[in-house]
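Try this one yourself first.
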């Protein structure tokens, strides 16, 4: 139970640290989103592995959580002291938080709209009807032989001669060049 409770608290704190650059830009630093993701991962591990954490591992988790909380509060106090009195007063005003949450909701709405457009485009591409098929739909490279083949599926010597192509043996690069020139002059003519 303690692991689940501390994991849920870590999820909330991790989400708050992750959203800090969006909500309180005065208090945020460049790597806050990475640390927020780490705390979210810690919370996820604590919540999903709560039944395995008993005894001394749970004591280690509890001490680690207290240490992380203490260091986090020290960092937050240090950032608060770096603010000017005007910035501190502005962070406490209701209209500043309303504008921050308004901007966050607008960004989330735009993100959801883009996600919906992308999903609609992908679904439309999968559901798009293909070309209507004409005839049997078979594509023949060459016409079928009109001669009847044996019922057992074996081939006759005439069949193997018709399907085999002449093989050219090449022994040097000059032979290859000559074949390429002959093919090029045959296509041009």
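Now uncover the answer:
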């Amino acid at each position: 139970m303690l692991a689940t409770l501390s994991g849920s608290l870590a999820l909330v704190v991790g989400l708050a640290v992750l959203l800090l650059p969006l909500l309180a830009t005065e208090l945020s630093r460049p790597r806050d989103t990475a640390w927020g993701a780490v705390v979210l991962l810690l919370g996820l591990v604590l919540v999903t592995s709560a039944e395995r954490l008993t005894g001394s591992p749970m004591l280690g988790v509890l001490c680690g959580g207290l240490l992380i909380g203490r260091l986090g509060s020290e960092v937050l106090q240090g950032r608060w002291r770096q603010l000017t009195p005007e910035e501190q007063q502005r962070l406490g005003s209701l209209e500043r938080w309303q504008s921050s949450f308004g901007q966050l909701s607008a960004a989330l709405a735009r993100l959801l709209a883009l996600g919906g457009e992308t999903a609609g485009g992908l679904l439309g591409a999968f559901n798009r009807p293909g070309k209507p098929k004409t005839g049997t739909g078979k594509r023949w490279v060459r016409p079928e032989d009109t001669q009847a083949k044996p019922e057992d599926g074996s081939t006759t010597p005439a069949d193997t001669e018709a399907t085999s192509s002449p093989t050219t043996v090449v022994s040097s690069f000059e032979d290859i060049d000559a074949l390429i020139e002959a093919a090029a002059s045959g296509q041009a003519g």
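Discussion: The radius of gyration is 36 Å. The mean pLDDT is 80.
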